[in-house]
Amino acid sequence: MEGKLVLKGKPIASIVSAGQSKFGKLEGLYAREIFAQAVKEAYERCPSLDPKKDIEALFIGHMGESYEHQGHTAAAAADWAGLLHVPAVRIETACSSSGVALRTAVFAIASGLCDVVMVGGVEKMTHRSTPEVTEFLAMASDFPFEQWHGITFPGLFALMATAHMYRYGTTELQLAHVAVKNHYNGCLNPKAQMQKEITLEQALSSRVIAWPLRLFDCSPITDGASCLILTRPEIAKKYTDTPVHIIGTGQASDTIGLYEREDFTSLKAAKLAAKQAYEMAGLKPEDIDVAEVHDCFTIAEIIAYEDLGFCKPGEGGRLAESGETTLKGRIPINPSGGLKAKGHPVGATGAAQAYEIFLQLTGQADKRQVDDAEIGLTHNVGGSGATATVHIYKRG
Amino acid sequence: MAEQPQNFTIEQFYRYVGQKKLMGGKCLNCGKIHLPPRPLCDKCLSTRFKWVELPQTGILLTYTIIHVAPTQFQGMAPYAVGIVQLENGVRVPGIIRKTSLDSLKVGMKLKVEFEETPTSQMQQWPHWPRYHFVPC
Fold this sequence. Notes:
The structure holds two protein chains of two kinds.
Chain A: E1 13-20, H1 31-45, H2 51-54, E2 58-61, H3 73-80, E3 88-91, H4 97-110, E4 116-123, H5 130-138, H6 153-168, H7 172-187, H8 200-205, E5 208-211, E6 213-214, E7 224-231, H9 236-239, E8 244-253, H10 268-281, E9 290-292, H11 298-307, H12 316-322, H13 338-342, H14 349-361, E10 375-382, E11 387-395
Parallel strand pairs in A: 2-3, 2-4, 9-10
Antiparallel strand pairs in A: 1-7, 1-8, 4-7, 5-6, 8-11, 10-11
Helix pairs in contact in A: 1-3, 4-14, 7-11, 7-12, 11-12
Chain B: H1 10-18, E1 23-27, E2 33-34, E3 49-53, E4 57-66, E5 79-86, E6 91-96, E7 109-114, E8 131-135
Antiparallel strand pairs in B: 1-2, 1-3, 4-5, 4-7, 5-6, 7-8
């Protein structure tokens, strides 16, 4: 699982444009229609792109057929993007689907087979009832031993939270700090689902979903889509003066069942993916200026701090309450509001993280702009950690 | 003698649960005990196994109390689920019953109990009987 390719900052692929639909409750729309909104923004941002002529393939993240009774979604998404007849592939790795779609697109570019490709992500969820969504999301966990025994998706992260609390003394207050920060950032993001600040007291008194996780520890149910245009680094400047280069990529897997893992307080797949990405880029955690991490639950952000090396194992809770991960802190995390406040349309999340880093590194993040952001990172986790992918980006 | 690797299935594990037994597949090459059993040892890639009965007591490694439950479990909520490490080190997730939810503690001793398959479930896949844990 060692990273083999050491690029030391040399780009492997470049993002020349990006788009994201509004995240939230998008009533009356079908997934491919939401995807078209994200695509439209990506096209508008990049007038020198001739989509029908230039784009050679689509890799799209989408998790669930159950929501809309619709499988085989990639071809339809390509058609709705105005790209009829391009090869279109759906990538499904649960909540990391479009992070892995991005990595797959990097492979297509790096192989030399494609010069320009589209990465997408989409999920339409809010038209279903909460118990139904709970059931659909649980499909990302092990059926015979987890779902069959009544373990929900929040339940799996709650099992990690309990283990983290017992081992390191992490507190519910520290979890609440993550929620308060991400809600604050979400208020600065016009595309976020939640645009309301919350207090620590509100977070700590919200109803229990899966103890020790409360409502404000959980990301919401969201509709949304995301889109990136990727090119060979050598031709990126043909499309934009300000590309964002991908300089590190990593991915790993783990057991589908949480119970089979040695350690419940860390995600081994995320640590391995991060190690590969850091090695490829020739960078260290302290070189990262801004990161979007997979805070499907507040505990997941705390574990991400540790797995990505932003603090030592066990110190994630203290880092959360220190204020160092706020917009003005030492290492701003989830300036977009994260999954927690921006929303978590499962299949769209990974590419939406890259969309935020694209905005941050090109100085287009408006009120939530991190000062002098040059190096960014995304951390996208599937299920309870059976898949994880990490990317590192550099301002072009 | 080792049984055929195709016998080391999740289906067969649950048939044993129906007989009030918790069974794992022990690799005859490297000795790893698998729960669930599997046809290919993830440690040494051997396909030779034998069934071994697992200890029915262990300690609670971590737990949660589910308040928002999937449709099928809604009538039970709130309920506790945990991951238990059996005395031989094998880890098993399951529901914890017959205890007040605030008396749960990481490290507490639990034992396995077996449930009958509800007849309502016999018609549809999967008709697996469940086990659960209770305090010792």
